[in-house]
Amino acid sequence: MGTYFGTEDRWKGFPLLVPALQRLSKSGWQDKIELLVFGSSEPESPIDVGFKIHYLGRLEDESLAKVYAAADVMVVPSRYEAFGQTASEALACGTPVVAFDVTGLKDIVDRHQNGYLAKPYDSEDLARGIAWVLED
Length: 136
What we know:
By secondary structure, this protein is of the alpha/beta class. Helix content is 38%, strand content 18%. It contains 5 helices and 6 strands. A 6-stranded parallel beta sheet has the order 3-2-1-4-5-6, with helices on both faces. The model has no long low-confidence stretch (mean pLDDT 91).
């Protein structure tokens, strides 16, 4: 199970996440992955990525910690993060993070240690990182 915080916001990287998830779905992961999206409610016209997406809305700290702890991976496909709060929170709960090798995220994610840093804005490498974490 993977988690993602945000909306269809360009800066949070949603347009880069969708092709990565679609690639995973077409690569045999469609029955093995479910995505938990928190921080926003379900859009009127959800995008089909090839597997189940659960929209959890806004969460309080205790519920959020449980979601992080239950997840196998936290995906943070942001184009820019000054600090990377959601990545830090996920790591604090023991959940590996897959993110682009940009800004504040590269300071907290150690490739192949506590997650995977994909080539900036490369959806194919983002998918590769998600698969790497899930297979590990």
